[in-house]
Amino acid sequence: MGRSAVLRGHRAGVTSLAAGWGSRSSMLLSGSDDQTCRLWDTRTSKAVRCIRGFSDEITAVELAGDHSIVAASGSSIYIYDQRAMNVVSQASEAASLFSNKDQGEVQALSARGDFIAYVDENGRLGVFDITDNPPSATPVDGHDALAGCVCIHPELPVIASGGFDRQVILWDMASETKARSFIAESCDTCDDPAKSFNPPFAYALDFAPEDSLQLVSGHADGSLVCLSDETVLRWSECHGYSISAVRFVSAKPEILATASLDCTLALWDAESILYPDVEAQSSAVTVVGDKPRQLALVELSTKPDTLAASETTPVIYTDEGCDIIAYTIS
Fold first, then answer.
1. CA Rg, the chain, in Å?
2. Please, which residues bridge with residue 286 across strands?
3. Residue among 138, 189, 181 at smallest CA distance from 163
4. First to last CA, the chain
5. What is the Cα 57 distance to its own chain's centre?
6. Which of 99-119 are b and which e, b meaning 16 or more Cβ less than 10 Å from the residue's Cβ?
7. Residue 325 contacts by C-beta under 8 Å, 6 or more apart in sequence?
8. Quick one: CA dihedral 284, 286, 287, 293, positive or negative?
9. pLDDT tier at 229, thresholds 50, 70, 90
10. By the 8 A CB rule, do 224 and 247 touch?
């Protein structure tokens, strides 16, 4: 895995990345603490659109539907039609706006088709259709603390969310009710003080790119957890500090990428996580002694917050300060 491109333009840390698919597979969307969003053409590493004028930093971005750009800032979610945008647009020019003002700041987004799922600082989950104007949602209580990550299954009507209550929850997308959950417990046997005093908050998650119900979550103590139909497996020694992002590599689905606040980017053999040769307990979290099979490890100069993976090429993107770095997987 080697660095292949640098995308420069943001003036503060990059907080969120989303890769395009289909006709927009060469696009990458970014959000930043500089209160802007930028749409990049990854073939040239140049920004082709910029949205300015947000009153808060950008906490999450997504590319939704055929032409929509979605950005969360504060308690609002802004939806733009890419076809109607200028090269530089203002936040106020959104085609539609979803307000979560009475519920709290939006922390994360996930898109599938025209649907957006979001979670907020009060642990609630909401889902809405971007084609509705104005979009509306009825958020439901789920987490007992801030919910920081959310993911819609690519095929099944299931949503996953993770929070600072250490819970990972699976939701039935149609009824928006809880289908299953687990709580990640602290590792009592860990010798690393940084991990011992850092509870395993659920920071990131991603569904395996197949029809089965398999989910991998990254936690604040550096552990990875795999939730499958009947079992929950946990590897406690994957990173030296919090895992900030987890992403299956779309063009190489046999690889899982993780970014960590220990300033590393790692690639893992997904099969060793999804189908490990261990005897799992069906009613409890099974702690796996050995690490999953690690394929590559890259040291970064700053702590990364986010990851995105190209749909068509074996490239992953992460943040390094104000810049976005592309890494090509050989």
1. 19
2. 233
3. 181
4. 6
5. 17
6. ebeebbbbbbbbbbeebbbbb
7. 3, 5, 6, 7, 300, 317, 318, 319
8. negative
9. confident
10. no
| pLDDT tens by residue, 152-204 | 999 999 999 999 999 999 999 988 899 988 888 765 545 555 555 578 999 99
In SS3 terms, the chain reads as CEEEEEECCCCCCEEEEEECCHHHCCEEEEEECCCCEEEEECCCCEEEEEEECCCCCEEEEEEECCCEEEEEECCEEEEEEHHHCCCEEEHHHCCEEEECCCCCCEEEEEEECCEEEEEECCCEEEEEECCCCCCCCCCEECCCCCEEEEEECCCCCEEEEEECCCEEEEEECCCCEEEEEEECCCCCCCCCHHHHCCCCCEEEEEECCCCCCCEEEEECCCCEEEECCCCEEEECCCCCCCEEEEEEECCEEEEEEEEECCCEEEEEEHHHHHCCCCCCCCCCEEEECCCCCEEEEEECCCCCCCEEECCCCCEEEEEECCEEEEEECC
pLDDT tens figures, 17-75: 999 999 999 999 999 999 999 999 999 999 999 999 999 999 999 999 999 999 999 99
168 CB-side CA count, 13 A: 30
Residue 140 is which amino acid?
V
Task: Work out the angle at residue 302's Cα, subtended by the Cα atoms of residues 150 and 69, and round it to the nearest 5 degrees.
Answer: 40
Q: Report residue 266 as tokens.
A: 């790692």
* Residue 157, CA distances (Å) to 177, 245, 281 in order: 12, 23, 26
